[in-house]
């Protein structure tokens, strides 16, 4: 019988079958942050239970941590409730013997950046986290997905999860992305085409020549944002790019063991005649840089396009479009290019890796941030920050007028000090543009790091392909 990669990963981790739709799934690695774990630990305590396998847990403070440019050892959380949350998390991890990347850890950063770069994510694993963007790990051939607080408690207690099996979707992307376009543009295009619920209930497998050409970090961006189409998981079959990345990051295996593991990982793939419940095809060569115009990631258009109106069809009803446009303060039929911006944010678990920061630096080298714009770069981890400084990437961004900050989730969501003011319009490399996501009354336009950097220089949304020819 033929199987998809997703089906193989589920089968290899099934402890028992509960019914036709549910299995008890074994979890290789469980990642926690300070935001979604407190109630889970409290639940364990009430039941008199301890964490079953502490060495298969990882804790990291990332959502509430400030990113002010102070030395790591001097980092403090000044928001009282956030500080209590982080302190409680530290206590819980220490009590249960769980390794924690705390506020003052030099490796600290965003969970979905830190885990892969430390070699903790490997093909064939099942990785869970109380965060929806755990789909990121599918870029390395691991089954990753977000879980709720009650499920966090269950995983801590049993190292398993009661799991409803998803359907299979294959998205084939052939052709090559053109200069100035990135995997961020690709995923925004896909979400805009299939809709915010277009992959609901599905595990998505990406394939095709365009996917094969992407770097491991670009694949992480793609898989990270696939959840914005409603997907329950995203996967890319491990290939040479995957294995090279993992080999460079894994630190706890000797050469012979790693060679054997790579040989096994190379066998992880869908059968050629495997059945997928849904299929989509896209041509990467036809995709332009994308920008969101509304309050959902699927409300996006090419930068040289126009904001749709109800008559042009955008898969939205007129009331939904009106509500989005009223909030974002733009007009149907207007070009998105040329829209003035107040802030630029380059960061988040979607686009804060070294590759992303290099792309931004390539755009701004020798230029200056517009006087009307406040621009900041928040690296995804301490390791990314250090590498950017060693390579000179950080200095290019600083010389251009960007704030160079410490790692954290930062302005991706309004849970820390980095918050937009009401009415501020931001060009952002994050993953969500919901109402109030970056601050009450704030207006967010999602785009790639190169596009955000170009907007910072121009003071408005521009087409990086036209304005910055060397990119």
UniProtKB/TrEMBL annotation:
Gene Ontology terms describing biological process: L-leucine biosynthetic process
Protein name: 3-isopropylmalate dehydratase
Catalytic activity, EC: 4.2.1.33
Pathway recorded for this protein: Amino-acid biosynthesis; L-leucine biosynthesis; L-leucine from 3-methyl-2-oxobutanoate: step 2/4
The UniProt record lists the keyword Metal-binding: yes
Task of the protein: Catalyzes the isomerization between 2-isopropylmalate and 3-isopropylmalate, via the formation of 2-isopropylmaleate.
Record-level Gene Ontology MF annotations: 3-isopropylmalate dehydratase activity; 4 iron, 4 sulfur cluster binding; metal ion binding
Top EC class for this record: lyase
Reactions accelerated catalytically: (2R,3S)-3-isopropylmalate = (2S)-2-isopropylmalate
Family: Belongs to the aconitase/IPM isomerase family.
Keywords on record: 4Fe-4S, Amino-acid biosynthesis, Branched-chain amino acid biosynthesis, Iron, Iron-sulfur, Leucine biosynthesis, Lyase, Metal-binding
Organism expressing this protein natively: Pararobbsia alpina
Subunit field text: Heterodimer of LeuC and LeuD.
InterPro entries: 3-IsopropMal_deHydase_lsu (IPR004430), Acnase/IPM_dHydase_lsu_aba_1/3 (IPR015931), Acoase/IPM_deHydtase_lsu_aba (IPR001030), Aconitase_4Fe-4S_BS (IPR018136), Aconitase_4Fe-4S_dom (IPR036008), IPM_dehydratase_rel_enz (IPR050067), IPMI_cat (IPR033941)
Domain of life: Bacteria
Domain Aconitase/3-isopropylmalate dehydratase large subunit alpha/beta/alpha: 10-459
Cofactor(s) listed in the protein's UniProt record: [4Fe-4S] cluster
């Amino acid at each position: 019988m033929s199987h998809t990669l997703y089906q193989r990963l589920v089968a290899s981790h099934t402890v028992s079958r509960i019914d036709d739709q549910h299995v008890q799934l074994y979890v290789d690695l469980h990642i926690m942050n300070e935001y979604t774990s407190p109630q889970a630990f409290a639940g364990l305590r009430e039941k008199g239970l301890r964490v079953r396998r502490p060495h298969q847990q990882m804790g990291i403070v990332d959502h509430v941590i400030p990113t002010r440019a102070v030395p790591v050892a001097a980092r403090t959380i000044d928001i009282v409730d956030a500080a209590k949350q982080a302190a409680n998390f530290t206590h819980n991890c220490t009590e249960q013997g769980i390794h924690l990347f705390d506020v003052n850890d030099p490796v600290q950063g965003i969970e979905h950046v830190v885990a892969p770069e430390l070699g903790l994510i490997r093909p064939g694993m099942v990785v869970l986290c109380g965060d929806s963007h755990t789909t990121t790990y599918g870029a390395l051939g691991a089954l990753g997905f977000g879980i709720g607080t009650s499920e966090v408690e269950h995983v801590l207690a049993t190292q398993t999860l009661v799991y409803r099996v998803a359907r299979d979707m294959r998205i084939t992307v052939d052709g090559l992305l053109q200069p100035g376009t990135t995997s961020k543009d690709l995923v925004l295009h896909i979400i805009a085409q299939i809709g915010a619920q277009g992959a609901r209930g599905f595990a998505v497998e990406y394939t095709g020549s365009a996917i094969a050409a992407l770097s491991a970090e670009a694949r992480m961006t793609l898989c990270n944002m696939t959840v914005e189409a409603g997907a329950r998981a995203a996967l890319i079959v491990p290939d040479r790019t995957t294995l090279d990345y993992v080999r460079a990051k894994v630190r706890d295996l000797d050469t012979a063991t790693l060679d054997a593991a790579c040989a096994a990982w190379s066998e992880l793939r869908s059968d050629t005649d495997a059945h997928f419940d849904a299929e989509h095809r896209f041509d990467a060569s036809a995709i332009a840089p994308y920008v969101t115009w509304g309050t959902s990631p699927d409300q996006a258009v090419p930068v040289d396009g126009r904001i749709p109106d109800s008559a042009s069809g955008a898969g939205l009803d007129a009331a939904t479009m009106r509500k989005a446009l009223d909030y974002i303060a733009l007009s149907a039929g207007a070009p998105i290019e040329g829209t003035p911006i107040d802030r630029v944010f380059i960061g988040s678990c979607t686009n804060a890796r070294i590759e992303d920061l290099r792309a931004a630096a390539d755009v701004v080298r020798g230029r200056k941030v517009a006087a009307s714009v406040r621009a900041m770069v928040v690296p995804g981890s301490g390791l990314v920050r250090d590498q950017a400084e060693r390579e000179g990437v950080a200095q290019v961004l600083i010389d251009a007028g960007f704030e160079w900050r410490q790692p954290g989730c930062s302005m991706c969501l309004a849970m820390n000090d980095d918050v937009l003011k009401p009415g501020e319009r931001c060009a952002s490399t994050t993953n969500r543009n919901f109402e109030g996501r970056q601050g009450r009354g704030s207006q967010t336009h999602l785009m790639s790091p190169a596009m955000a950097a170009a907007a910072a220089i121009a003071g408005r949304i521009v087409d990086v392909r036209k304005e910055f020819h060397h990119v």
